[in-house]
Design brief:
614 residues; alpha/beta; Glutamine Phosphoribosylpyrophosphate, subunit 1, domain 1; Rossmann fold; 3 domains; 8-stranded antiparallel beta sheet; 27 strands; globular
């Protein structure tokens, strides 16, 4: 959701900024812009509705010189997507330009006050209000830009990640953040600023993640200078960037989504590496080792998450309750923060997020801490806000996920939850050594079984071709495969714009069966041995009403194959592991339908990869 790139150094800024914006395109946006300060101290601002390529086309023949600049991709919140509302925004004097991710909640009251003081506004954005608030403070308090930003942000309610350039200062950028991510890359006599690390990859390995309510002076020839908005100095913590250029390129695939689908055997193995020990039939999770006692004796383990991470958490709840016999709740983070949940210091809250920046999940973490609960995290991005806000956690090691529709993040999160459930069961003694060993050996074999599923998925494209023009689909599963049904339906909705819903299969007769006719395809995940006969009954109910049936079944299944119109096989496995396998063909199915419908697979309309605002 929105993207920030900024540069100050010895190189031409424009090519670096444009490349950075292109790397951030996966976040979702509707307009783009750039501001450059040239050698004549002229601040040139160029903006365009649409894609970064539209911005590039609009600056042909114009002055794009300068060694300092800021750039932005916008996802509209205040004001429609157009050139005027696009970032960067200039202050009334034209001396400063600002880019901003986030939402200023009290922008309207600030705007009215500024209008009384003679300021005028060209756009409908909260961002233009912010840059003029900073200019007002600078003029009235007679302070430099750094101090003006620090003072102004004390009057702001909301979330922000900002970068500002000012005429007369060709070697300095001022940046700040609260509730919206920002990272600074430190090069050789140059600095790179971005909303995530992808624009920095390949340029430097030294980065600093800015904390909430910090303001940073980024000046050539000087170390980073950081103070909080409350005027407390902070020491920058320099880290090594754990990302490489190959991980953010398509590697021969037409889309990032398909590349990431095919990465799943490796990322599941990477997520288990050093944690799953099939030689000793044990699990070790070093990131949370100091909180194992709290997990074991918690009144409740409460997962808070959104979207795909919520589906992964549903799988996790089943696993922990089934294997470790600990009570688990799963909450939408967006609802949790507002519904006055009953949370006590005897509960453990686990926040799950791919990006580690999800605004609703971060708010849920804050609320859980206020209630005194231990808060752990499961996320993919090292140094992310959630990884810093939680007491401890587990990284998924999925690598960068560029496609907006999450794929490998889901399987890596579910893999973590398997290991967490197995570890808690081991500590609590709820499994016999023999059964625990069988489960661990099965989990160790899952990457190879995912690869088998991928190798035998060519016919899924043919099935997709038959259903690319449908308007609705239903997905059905039971127990741990119910979240798989939800996730399969979500993937189809996200990237093909076909309406789809997931249901527990047994709930079909309580309403959804009214929808069944010859035009309603139904996907059944029919792999669970414990409920197989029950799902067959549900399949028969659809068949008798002329519904079209796509069945995901275990290898060599006979009965469901004879009933379904189309069959997709996955390797046979212990039933509780089927989510890690059954999800794969549903991702591929959605992908092919979206491609055939001419949809933008990696950047679906209206969606953003990292939802950093409400």
């Amino acid at each position: 959701m929105c993207g920030i790139v900024a540069y100050v150094g010895h190189q031409d800024a424009y090519p670096i900024l444009i490349e950075g914006l292109k790397r951030l395109e996966y976040r979702g946006y509707d307009s783009a812009g750039v501001a450059l300060l040239n050698a004549q101290d002229e601040l040139n601002v160029y903006k365009a509705k649409g894609k970064v390529s539209d911005l590039e086309a609009s600056v042909v023949g114009k002055d794009i010189s300068g060694h300092i600049g800021i750039a932005h991709t916008r996802w509209a919140t205040h004001g429609e997507p157009n050139q005027t509302n696009a970032h960067p925004h200039l202050s009334n004097s034209g001396n400063m330009a600002l880019i901003h991710n986030g939402i200023i909640e009290n922008y309207m009251s600030l705007r009215k006050e500024l209008e009384k003081r003679g300021f005028t506004f060209k756009s409908d954005t909260d961002t233009e209000v912010l840059i003029n608030l900073i200019e007002d403070v600078q003029q009235s308090e007679h302070v430099d830009l750094f101090e003006a930003v620090r003072i102004a942000l004390n009057h702001v309610v909301g979330a922000y990640a900002i970068a500002i350039v000012e005429k007369g200062h060709p070697d300095e950028i001022i940046a700040a953040r609260k509730g919206s991510p920002m990272v600074i890359g430190i090069g050789q006599n140059e600095y790179f600023i971005a909303s995530d690390a992808t624009p920095i990859v390949g340029r430097t390995q030294k980065v600093v993640y800015i904390e909430d309510e910090q303001v940073v002076r980024i000046k050539l020839g000087e170390e980073l200078f950081i103070r909080t908005i409350h005027d407390v100095e902070a020491i920058p913590y320099v880290q090594e960037l754990e990302m490489n250029l190959d991980s953010i390129e398509k590697a021969g695939f037409e889309h990032f989504m398909m590349k990431e689908i095919y990465e799943q055997p490796r990322i599941v193995r990477d997520t288990m590496r050093g944690r799953l020990h099939p030689d000793t039939n044990s699990v070790s999770l070093g990131g949370i080792v100091n909180y194992e006692k709290q997990l074991l004796y918690a009144d409740n383990i409460v997962f808070v998450a959104c979207g795909t991470s919520w589906h992964a958490s549903l799988v996790g709840s089943y696993l922990i309750e089934f294997l470790a016999k600990i009570r688990v709740k799963v909450e939408y983070a967006s609802e949790f923060r507002y519904r006055h949940p009953v949370i006590t210091p005897h509960d453990v809250v686990i926040a799950v997020s791919q990006s580690g920046e999800t605004a609703d999940t971060l708010a849920a973490i804050k609320l859980a801490k206020e209630y005194g609960a231990v808060v752990l995290g499961i996320c993919n991005v090292i140094g992310s806000s959630i990884s810093r806000a939680t007491d401890a956690g587990i990284y998924t090691h999925a690598g960068p996920e560029i496609g907006v529709a999450s794929t490998k993040a889901f399987t890596s999160q579910v893999t973590v939850m398997f290991m967490l459930a197995l570890r808690l069961a081991e500590l609590k003694g709820t499994l016999t050594p023999e059964y625990r060993a069988e489960l661990i050996q099965e989990l160790d074999s899952i990457p190879e079984k995912i690869q088998w599923t991928l190798d035998h998925s060519a016919h899924v494209k043919d099935i997709a071709a038959k259903y690319k023009d449908v308007r609705n689909m239903l997905y059905m599963g039971r127990l741990q495969n119910y979240p798989v049904a939800l996730e399969g339906a979500l993937k189809l909705k996200e990237i093909s714009y076909i309406h789809a819903e997931g249901y527990p299969a047994a709930e079909m007769k309580h309403g959804p069966i009214a929808l069944i006719d010859k035009d309603m395809p139904v996907v059944f995940i029919a792999t669970n041995r414990n409920t197989y006969e029950k799902v067959l009954s549900n399949i028969q109910e659809v068949k008798s009403r002329n519904g079209k049936i796509i069945a995901v079944v275990s290898e060599k299944d006979v009965t469901a194959r004879g009933m379904a119109d189309h069959v997709i096989e996955i390797p046979d496995c212990i039933s509780i592991f089927s989510p890690l396998l059954a999800t794969i063909p549903l991702q591929i199915f959605a992908y092919h339908i979206a491609v055939m419908r001419g949809c933008n697979v990696d950047q679906p309309r209206n969606l953003a990869k990292s939802v950093t605002v409400e």
